[in-house]
Amino acid sequence: MGAQQQEHLDGSTFGDFTKLEGFLATGALTNVSGFGSDPAAFNATQLTGGHNYTARLNSTIRNNFIAEITGGLHFQRANTIPQAIDQPLISDNFAVLRGGSVLAVNQTGIDSGSTATGFIDFVDGRGGSLQRGFIRGPGFGLYGNQKRDRYEINAHMQNIEGKHTVKWGFEWFRVKIRHSNSLQWTGDNLCEPARSCDRESAARCGSH
User: Fold this and answer.
1) Pairing assessment for the beta strands 164-179 and 119-122 based on DSSP bridges
2) Which letter does DSSP use for residue 83 in this model?
3) N or C: which end of the chain has fewer CB within 10 A?
């Protein structure tokens, strides 16, 4: 629409709601390989996208001074809903793969006497290959609902002075992330009772 003869204002809105179902890599990509004992550890529903609003003003302030000003509001969601939430995420840094199967750990029951080492266990890995990042069981890990909003404004100016053209402007934006129900870990919550994991304490209380 035209505000005045020397100004032109445009506006638009659209939605980009997206739903992903099935195999879902976590944010840290710890399960992106699909290397695990239970497919449930990799299956979830992810809801992203949202509402977007934009506006642009083209203005001739003077004969030698024009401006283009744009702004946008983007209200996005990032919700992760695992297939199973009753089991904790159990991840092995290393595993021995032989014949398409991961070899079991032999527990000796012998205490090493060190609080850092614990009991002495071993894997007879003869004929196998050492692999990384094996997920045991159906535990998915960190999940929850998030709102990721972005606000932005841009101004581009142009001045014509004789044979010279001067272009200048500025840009500003703000990204705001909110956790609707706080982030949580599948299985037993290692935080204090009746307290879910927020962003600041997620690393501390979710170290399964």
Assistant:
1) unpaired
2) S
3) N
Instruction: Tell me phi and psi for residue 203, to 5 degrees.
Output: -65, -35
Do 128 and 97 touch, CB atoms closer than 8 A?
A: yes
pTM across the whole model: 0.62
Burial class (CB in 10 A: 0-12, 13-18, 19+), 25: middle
Position 51, amino acid:
H
Structure tokens at 94: 């290393």
Cross-strand pairs, 167: 158
The closest of 45, 79, 87 to 183, measured between CA atoms, is: 79
What six digits make up the tokens of 208? Answer: 């399964």
The string of pLDDT tens digits covering residues 132-147 is 888 888 888 888 888 9
Closest residue by Cα to residue 26 from 200, 109, 143: 143
Rounded-to-10 torsion of CA 30, 35, 38, 43: 50
**What is the Cβ-side half-sphere exposure of residue 179, based on CA atoms within 13 angstroms?**
15
CA angle at residue 85 from 79 to 89, to 5 degrees?
100
Q: Where are the domains of the chain?
A: 7-88+137-205
